[in-house]
Design brief:
Elements lengths: L2 H30 L6 H11 L12 H8 L2 H22 L5
Helix pairs in contact: 1-4, 2-4
Length: 98
């Protein structure tokens, strides 16, 4: 595989992952209103979407996670943040871990 083909494969993978992330985010926004998830689960979901491309390492205290988990708006904002973080890290920083 030449350099151009490798770049196309990476860009194709990024586009696919971004579409999957967007779809999952929209779905999550609907689900979160009735069934909020924890920040840890949010990161695990993103790691599944970006599997093989990018991985987010995430640590949070139990107390903070419990507080955030009770606020669907906060969870939705964190989903958006983590998704943008992963996308921008890979797209602009050629990163594989965050």
């Amino acid at each position: 595989m030449n350099k151009f083909q490798k770049e196309m494969a990476v860009n194709s993978s990024l586009a696919k992952n971004e579409l999957n992330r967007t779809l999952k985010s929209l779905t999550n926004d609907l689900v979160l209103k009735s069934n909020p998830i924890s920040p840890r689960q949010s990161v695990e979901n993103l790691n599944e979407i970006w599997d093989g491309v990018f991985k987010i390492d995430f640590e949070i205290s139990s107390e903070l996670e419990n507080l955030i988990s009770k606020d669907p708006v906060c969870i939705s904002a964190l989903n958006d943040f983590f998704g943008e973080f992963a996308t921008n890290s890979v797209k602009h920083g050629k990163s594989s871990k965050g």
